[in-house]
């Protein structure tokens, strides 16, 4: 795809007929037209294909009433209906952009994120702090593509909106500082990154509490920066904080899940989607690898993180990986006399093993591998 569109030039959703036709993605003079809605234009086939895959296939026909105003749309009832259609567009674009980012499809996420910003500006106006989430989503998409100068421009606009809104909520400030922290980490300004991640933790704790998993994400990001600086003791301390927060959270989810199995009237709903699950898996996996690679292994920390991973994979329905990480946790906890996690880990392993089913004769399925096989495939066992 060609150079990414600049956020400083945002086309309105509706535009007068007979005006210059500009590319939906880059706002350069357009020569191609969508043959379905016939109201969207592109400078070349590459941008047309990128927009179609990114978002246009989802909103093509929704744009028709917005970009072809009628006498009714100018009346009060028509204006209300038009605002509802634009609100629908906003939610579709936000949802699509977020899903593509969770799948790490940053290139495809850009058109959806850009249209999310465009819709938001059209509905909310160009200078409201409510635009910050759409700026941050567009920044995240471009961060994944390495467009750091564009990310800096987008975040600068978001920061300006926050600075001129003294009553801005903690959650928005937390998200802004996290994005700024990611940018400074990518550019190598680690001190600025630490400052922003520290603000991330502060505002997250104010909004969600000190024991929130959102707050723990900020601790993890700070630990990652300290690790880059070679400050291992601080990294270890922050990782321990993150592990304890996640262990408490996952233990509560596991308890609720078991209650829902025992009592069908209890509804169990995981508190995060698949994208969030992948993030948590990566965070916990990074901490376990860090501990196992360190010459001063802490069996208590290994047991804690591995137990978290076992619970996470069990809740995701992957009993094989739950067995593997549970066995790592058990090996580590048994190195510490009367360790308080040993009983909990054994309970989880017994629960997982009770759910393992033998293959039906003639099904062609092999028997379940042993925990030792799982450990060899998915995770190194703990070595004292």
TrEMBL record:
Tagged with keyword Nucleotide-binding: no
Segments for region (Disordered): 357-384
Span of domain MYND-type: 23-60
Any GO molecular function: zinc ion binding
Family matches, as InterPro entries: Zinc_finger_MYND_domain, Znf_MYND
Membrane found in the keyword field: no
Keywords: Metal-binding, Zinc, Zinc-finger
Name the UniProt record assigns to this protein: MYND-type domain-containing protein
Species of origin: Pleuronectes platessa
Lineage, highest ranks first: Eukaryota, Metazoa, Chordata, Craniata, Vertebrata
């Amino acid at each position: 795809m060609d150079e990414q569109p600049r956020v400083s030039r945002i086309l309105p959703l509706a535009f007068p007929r007979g005006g210059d036709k500009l590319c939906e993605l880059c706002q350069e003079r357009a020569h191609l037209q969508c043959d379905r809605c016939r109201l969207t234009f592109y400078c070349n086939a590459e941008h047309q294909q990128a927009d179609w895959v990114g978002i246009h296939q989802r909103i093509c026909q929704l744009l028709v009433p917005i970009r072809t105003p009628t006498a009714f749309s100018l009346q009060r009832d028509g204006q209300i209906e038009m605002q509802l259609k634009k609100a629908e567009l906003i939610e579709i674009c936000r949802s699509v952009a977020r899903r593509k980012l969770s799948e790490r499809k940053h290139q495809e996420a850009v058109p959806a994120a850009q249209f999310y910003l465009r819709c938001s500006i059209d509905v909310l106006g160009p200078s409201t702090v409510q635009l910050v989430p759409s700026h941050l989503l567009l920044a995240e998409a471009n961060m994944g593509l390495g467009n750091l100068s564009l990310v800096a421009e987008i975040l600068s606009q978001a920061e300006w909106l926050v600075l001129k809104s003294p009553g801005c909520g903690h959650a928005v400030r937390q998200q802004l500082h996290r994005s700024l922290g990611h940018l400074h980490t990518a550019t190598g300004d680690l001190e600025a990154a630490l400052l922003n991640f520290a603000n991330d933790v502060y505002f997250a704790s104010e909004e969600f509490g000190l024991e929130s998993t959102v707050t723990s994400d900020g601790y993890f990001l700070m630990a990652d920066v300290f690790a880059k600086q070679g400050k291992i003791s601080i990294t270890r301390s922050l990782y321990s904080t993150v592990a304890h927060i996640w262990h408490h959270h996952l233990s509560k989810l596991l308890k609720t899940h078991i209650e829902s199995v025992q009592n069908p009237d209890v509804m169990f709903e995981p508190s995060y989607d698949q994208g969030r699950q992948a993030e948590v898996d990566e965070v916990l996996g990074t901490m376990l690898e860090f501990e196992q690679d360190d010459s001063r292994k802490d069996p208590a920390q290994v047991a804690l993180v591995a137990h978290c991973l076992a619970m996470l994979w069990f809740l995701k329905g992957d009993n094989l990986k739950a067995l593997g990480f549970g066995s790592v946790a058990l090996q580590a906890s048994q190195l510490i006399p009367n360790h308080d996690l040993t009983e909990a880990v054994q309970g989880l392993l017994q629960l997982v093993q009770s759910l393992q089913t033998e293959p039906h004769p003639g099904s062609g399925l092999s028997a379940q591998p042993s925990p030792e096989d799982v450990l060899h495939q998915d995770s190194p066992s703990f070595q004292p």
